[in-house]
Specification:
Helices cover 29% and strands 22% of the residues. By secondary structure, the chain is an alpha/beta fold. Helix 2 runs parallel beside helix 3 and helix 6 crosses helix 7. The two termini are 18 Å apart.
Length: 513
């Protein structure tokens, strides 16, 4: 197959653009004029001026949770407690009392007037239906009384927070480990439901140009679900799977190391949490506030142990203290992971002390960030981190310090939409307002690299994918215009026309006219 009469952006600095692209089987054969003679009677596809790029790679997504969220009560964008309760009430009217009513996306810090969610507010509209509503940041859970009763008082766990009222009774909001423990223990979703939702999610991701993901839902036991989908040919994106650090003993026992799997599904890296989040006010800051989930000493030991088992570590760190502890842990354990060629990463890196910003590049720690988070969080950051936002979501500063940026969505926290992320990284806005801290904006080319080339490198795939050069896998996205040629204000309007994985169209396809 030869794709011609369009703009081919290879994302390779040696040959940034090509007039056409030859594909043989599942791989790039080369640029036309050199390698097309090796193709037997190739099909010629007229792009008609469309733009071709390497397929998008979301470097931070909770894929199963995002897929399931498409079927839940969605509370993103609600502006008051009353509006949130009204959406729940509508869903509860048709919900059976023997099944959980689940939802996601609420953010009480954006509600006017300022108030916190309570079980009492839900009880008024939900009757006997158990309700579990995950916050937008995934670190707080809002429950009604029926749901709380399922725990029989088993709410407090180390690293968790149970909000209580003036009488010492639970308000219905759990945070951090308490939220996750409750969800994992009591809000049970049948495996078949997860898998069915993921199948639909894969097709939706393909329609947005996504050909690879770094998944964060290892703690859910997602690997068998991916395998079930892969087994019947339904896996049309590449998965670099995280596993929680608590699973290290099992990995050590069987000798599985990073990279175990095949071209589509591989075990990738170990996931650790240092602290909470901005929205839940549990991010760990240098002023002593927030929740410590993993100590600096424990984290160093996890990095060492993971390295000896053959795994890089990706660590969630939001606050400036959590990020410092993570950087310190990686630095102290450098003699373990560096000689093994492992590629560690800090997830989010949202608030950084100025002196820590250049340490990412100096130590060789990738910043796995989400370009949409800054513009999405701007109002909460201005309120909760007042006077400090000049060092928040500082993606340009981290990059200028020599660090590798990998862009993801953190879906369902934000939407899995790479083009929205690119827009946010370049313009620092997603809602039409002026850019928030525009000095932290990056170029379109840098945003594209963080969404194609860099995530492939983090997964050790730089010789297989991420660029459109001979020998690499033919994972591509076709866009209706060239992101590097249009005005930045047009980035949000770019449309995905088609997506190809390993030489096979998985969304759209020719003819394009």
């Amino acid at each position: 197959m030869i794709l011609e009469n369009g703009v081919i952006r290879t994302m390779d600095p040696a040959l940034p653009t090509a007039a056409a692209l030859a594909i043989a089987g599942e791989r790039i054969a080369g640029g036309v004029g050199t390698h097309e003679t090796s193709l037997a009677s190739p099909d010629r596809v007229d792009l008609g001026g469309l733009c071709v790029l390497p397929g998008f790679n979301d470097s931070h997504v909770h894929f199963a949770q995002w897929s399931l969220a498409q079927r839940q009560v969605r509370l993103e964008g609600v502006r008051s407690l009353e509006e949130a309760v009204a959406r729940v009430a509508e869903a509860a009217r048709s919900a059976p009392s023997d099944r959980w009513l689940r939802g996601t996306g609420w953010r009480s810090g954006e509600w006017q007037p300022h108030t916190e969610p309570t079980k009492k507010a839900l009880d008024a509209v939900t009757g006997d239906v158990p309700v579990a509503l995950m916050a937008k940041d995934g670190h707080s859970l809002w429950l009604n009384s029926v749901a709380l009763a399922r725990a029989n008082g088993d709410l407090r766990v180390p690293g968790g927070v149970v909000e209580v009222d003036e009488r010492g009774e639970p308000t219905g909001v759990l945070r951090e480990e308490s939220a996750w423990h409750f969800r994992e223990t009591f809000v049970v979703t049948p495996e078949a439901e997860w898998i069915d939702a993921m199948r639909v999610g894969i097709r939706l991701a393909n329609s947005r140009g996504v050909t690879a993901v770094h998944d964060k839902d290892g703690w859910l036991g997602i690997l068998p679900w991916w395998q079930a989908i892969h087994g019947d040919g339904g896996l049309t994106l590449r998965v670099w799977q995280s596993l929680p650090w608590e699973r290290l003993p099992e990995l050590e026992a069987v000798g599985i190391t990073s990279g175990f799997g095949d071209d589509l599904l591989r075990v990738g890296y170990i996931k650790v949490f240092m602290d909470g989040t901005l929205g839940s006010r549990t991010a760990r800051l240098l002023d002593g506030s927030g929740v410590e989930i993993t100590s600096r000493a424990d984290f160093e030991e996890i990095v060492r142990r993971s390295a000896r088992a053959g795994f890089p570590v990706g660590v969630h760190a939001i606050g400036d203290q959590a990020n410092r502890d993570a950087l310190d842990g990686f630095e102290a354990a450098g003699e373990e992971w560096r000689p093994r060629g492992l590629r560690p990463r800090i997830e989010h890196a949202q608030l950084l002390a100025r002196e820590d910003i250049p340490r990412f590049g100096k130590l060789g720690i990738a910043a796995s960030v989400q370009f949409t988070h800054g513009p999405s969080d701007r109002d909460l950051a201005d309120e909760y981190w007042g006077g400090m936002t000049d060092r928040a979501y500082a993606i340009r500063s981290v990059q200028d310090g020599g660090a590798l940026l990998a862009n993801g969505s953190d879906a369902p926290v934000e939407e899995l939409d790479p083009l929205l992320g690119i827009h946010a990284g370049v313009l620092r806005t997603i809602d039409g307002r002026d850019g928030w801290h525009p000095e932290q904006a990056i170029s379109v080319e840098d945003a594209l690299r963080a969404t194609t080339v860099n995530p492939a490198w983090l997964a050790g795939d730089e010789r297989r994918r991420g660029r459109l050069v001979p020998g690499q896998l033919a994972d591509i996205v076709v866009l209706d215009r060239d992101p590097l040629a249009c005005e930045p204000s047009e980035l949000r309007n770019i449309r995905v026309v088609a997506t190809m994985l390993a030489g096979r169209w998985v969304f759209g396809g020719p003819p394009f006219h």
